[in-house]
Design a protein that fits this description.
five-stranded mixed sheet; about 70% helix; about 10% strand; disordered N terminus
Length: about 500
């Protein structure tokens, strides 16, 4: 009985020992399979991560080259080669993580494409920038190489996905093997093993499905990702990286939208300012046009009166006719746009009247080029300049005074010059006059006509007119007006 008991005990012990061995084998098998599973998913993560870093570093490589080509900075050149080394490391890590060794040569081909890009980049760097055509051909070839590599992204991500499927298939196969071993050796652990297998598979596949769903949501423009709960560290890292990427994209989109909104507001404000400036310029032009000195009218009428008193001749009637034409021109064009030929005709009438007034004391010389374009211009701009020369430049001249009016065309510019041989102006006063934009102090009215004319011309032509003043003491005074035909759209 004792022997039987012992024998039974021995069987029980053997059974227990066997059970322990089976449990150890099962546990060991489980540990090994779980370790291989983690390694396979680590490998899958490494493949995706390194492939993603490869295309990011490829962009950084190209950006460093672009900056170097424009700045010729040695640091950018060093960054360019550093990124090449990083790219090689990315490819090597991807190759090492692949399960399907048939895909290794495909990634080696990717490495060769980068070598081709680098070789073309060195040709572009060595090119002479002065040879624009040669440089452009090489640079376009470089862009083609870069675009060709970029277009491989979908293909290589597809290869990575295929490799992931192989890894997943291997994991499933290992799980089934573990189940068969567990069923064969220990029947009473079958329920637990099935539960373990199902829970293990679900802990892997469910997060992966959610990650894929989140990636699809990002593609569709939705960035509020589904939360993924998982204790696997690598899966958590992948999920956090995906969430960070989605947050970054959403913030960038919000930033660009806000930037566009602010730019629209700035443009609207600039348009408002331009409209205000236009209204202000029109207002100033109307004000300036109403400031023409009326003294000439009274002086002329007084002179005509004296002339008519002293002689009853045709000359007086002609003076009256010229005066009438001049007054009619001034009144008709006081608030209108005139033209160059009308201004020249008006100045002919004005000079005729002044010649009769001053006699031999002042001569008026006109040098007008033929076939001048009849461009638009403000009315009554030449007369104030001639009047300024007579009233101020020649006021102390008793005889042999001259006022010269020249109008010509030089290339795409109309050149208007009014000069006299009067007393001129000291250099310091001329400098002060120019610096003050021909403005005068409250007690100085001597250059009102010059100030009005310059303001009206600038208001009318803007940047398309230049006004140059030359004068030396005892050597006369000259003002030159240069009207750019191209700038004002007259050619």
């Amino acid at each position: 009985m004792w022997n039987r008991s012992k024998s039974f005990r021995s069987k029980i012990m053997n059974y227990n020992l066997m059970l322990i061995v089976v449990m150890v084998l099962v546990c060991t098998t489980y540990v090994l399979i779980n370790d291989r599973t983690i390694k396979k998913f680590n490998s899958t993560y490494t493949t995706y991560n390194e492939l993603n870093q490869f295309y990011d570093n490829l962009k950084n490589l190209n950006d460093a080259l672009q900056v170097y080509l424009y700045s010729q900075d040695d640091q950018n050149y060093k960054d360019f080669h550093r990124y090449r080394t990083v790219l090689q490391g990315n490819v090597e890590k991807v190759k090492a993580s692949l399960k399907n060794q048939d895909h290794v040569w495909r990634f080696e081909l990717l490495n060769n494409m980068v070598d081709g890009y680098m070789a073309q980049a060195e040709l572009v760097i060595a090119s002479d920038l002065q040879q624009e055509k040669e440089f452009s051909v090489k640079y376009q070839e470089l862009l083609y190489e870069y675009d060709l590599i970029n277009k491989t992204a979908s293909e290589y991500y597809g290869l990575a996905t295929q490799d992931m499927q192989l890894q997943k298939a291997a994991v499933n196969s290992n799980q089934k093997t573990m189940q068969l071993v567990s069923l064969f050796f220990i029947l009473y652990l079958i329920v637990w093993m099935i539960y373990f297998s199902i829970s293990t598979i679900k802990s892997i596949t469910d997060p992966l499905e959610k990650v894929i769903n989140n990636m699809n949501r990002i593609k569709k423009g939705a960035y509020d990702l589904t939360q993924i709960s998982n204790t696997n560290k690598e899966m958590n890292v992948l999920c956090l990286a995906l969430e960070d990427m989605a947050d970054s994209i959403e913030k960038n989109i919000q930033y660009e939208n806000e930037k566009a909104r602010l730019e629209r507001r700035v443009l609207e404000q600039q348009n408002d300012n331009l409209r205000k400036d236009e209204l202000l310029a029109q207002s100033e032009l109307r004000i300036l046009q109403n400031q023409i000195n009326p003294h000439f009218l009274f002086n002329t009428l007084n002179m005509i009166y004296k002339k008519a008193y002293s002689e009853g001749a045709y000359e007086t009637s002609e003076l009256m006719e010229k005066t009438s034409q001049l007054l009619r021109y001034g009144l008709d064009n006081a608030s209108k746009i005139s033209s160059l030929k009308k201004e020249i005709k008006a100045i002919y009438n004005y000079n005729y009247i002044q010649e009769k007034r001053y006699g031999d004391r002042i001569r008026f010389l006109m040098d007008i080029e033929e076939d001048l374009p009849d461009i638009p211009m403000p009315s009554m701009v030449l007369q104030p300049l001639v009047e300024n020369a007579v009233s101020h430049g020649l006021q102390d001249i008793i005889e042999d005074g001259e006022v010269v009016i020249e109008v010509s065309r030089l290339n795409d510019e109309i050149m208007i010059s009014v000069s006299d041989n009067g007393t001129g102006m000291p250099a310091d006063e001329l400098e002060k006059l120019i610096l003050n934009d021909f403005r005068m102090s409250s007690d100085e009215r001597s250059h009102l006509g010059l100030y009005n004319v310059t303001r009206r011309l600038k208001a009318f032509y803007g940047d398309g007119v230049r006004i140059i003043v030359n004068s030396l003491e005892e050597c006369g005074f000259e003002i030159n007006i240069q009207i750019d035909l191209k700038e004002n759209g007259y050619v």
